[in-house]
Amino acid sequence: MTSDRSAAKASLGGQAVSIAIGLGASQLLTAVIFVAAARASSPQNFGVVAAAVSLGLVVAGVVDFGTSNMWVRDLANGNSHIGEVSARATGKICICVLIFGVSGLVTIAGGVDWRYLAACPIGISFLLKQTADVGLRAGSRGHHYAISGLIDKATAFALFLTLLALEAPADLAMCIALSAGPIFGGAFSWIVTSPSLRVTPRSSFLKFWPWRRALGYGSYSSAISLQNLDVSLLALFGGPQSAGLYGAVTRWTQPMGMVSTAVSSASIPYIAKAPSNAAAIAQVRRTYWILGLAILACVCVASFAPVLVPLLVGDAYSGSVGILQILALGTIPAVLNQPMAVFLQARHFDRFVSVVIGIGVGVQLTSLIGLIPLMGALSAAVAFLLAQIVIFSGFSAKFARLRRQMM
Fold it and tell me: Where are the transmembrane segments (predicted)?
């Protein structure tokens, strides 16, 4: 029994490390794309593209409504079978394509800046990749999941460089690259997934409601997705200049966030299968050091921001230094919040998680709008920090209560 438990822990630790390396490297490539596009554009022009990217991710996240994570949990603990999941996923993707198709037509008819159309392919490809990953994650195939993420961003990076070499505008190159990358990563995920867990198109999708039993997960997922509205809100209330200053550095802390995502993604099947909360906590204990490294990286980014920003994106973005410092500090509680949220969801406290996240995101968006007249682009970073502190406080209180119950 002891050896089995140790093997499980080692397996979880190994998967978490693999996913952390893969997703961390993936986000570094994404950050490089954003840096290169920002350097080739003025803050005002880059702000429009950054807003379009964030808008696509928001809509895709709302359409997903937490179903991907819920299906990972339910497939792992045997509460769902792949046929039903495939039918629901097919319906969800069809609805997503319909929503983005109508949105694109409205954008064209309304004479809106054409670059906002990039939200459509970016959102669709993101959702396809997320759906293709379900079987890999449910089957505890963390190493392949990490490779899939690398293929996604490496393809996007290579395509971005190719388009720049062909003298395509940097903003157009970034939009095309970020749309194509997830398709290749998702294709890899689908191919290497075991047939017994592979999500496949089903003609019976009309018989199934895609978001059945997803209220708790969906509220959480939608709230998280709404966080991506920060760039769009900055562009709307503060102007493209503010959105550009914020958007130029907002991805720089993503690698640390992806480390947290790695721990969370690898942990879901193990936590879901654990017979008790105490056993579930024991399963994930060996991943704590990975989170510690992510926090250390946040401190380093905050410390070296005055050097990094002018070096990487130029003096035109000097106003982004303070933004990056506050974002890095806000990422410290964010690194801890995601594993806590996933743990509570996997232990069926998903409604509690959705309430806490909803409050946190509400604080973020309202404080962002309220602070824009006073702080400009810096308001988005401050709002992010406030939200993460609120969320951390809520989750910490819940874990303190669980620990008292286990004693």
Answer: 12-36, 48-72, 93-110, 172-192, 288-313, 319-340, 352-372, 378-397
The total number of structural domains that make up the chain:
1
Domain holding 153, by residue range, is 2-406
Cβ contact 275:210 at 8 Å: no
Q: Which residues of 59-78 are buried (b: 16+ CB within 10 A; e: fewer)?
A: bbbbbbbbbbbbbbbbbbbe
Confidence (pLDDT) at 407:
64
Tell me the longest C-alpha to C-alpha distance in the chain. Answer: 65
Residue 348: CB partners within 8 Å, gap ≥ 6? none
Task: Compute the chain's Rg from CA coordinates.
Answer: 20
Coil, strand or helix at 285? helix
Residues 233-280 have pLDDT tens digits of 888 888 888 888 888 888 788 778 777 877 777 777 777 777 777 777
Q: Where are the alpha helices (DSSP H) in 193-287?
A: 215-226, 229-237, 240-247, 254-273, 277-284
Q: Are 126 and 56 in contact (CB under 8 A)?
A: yes
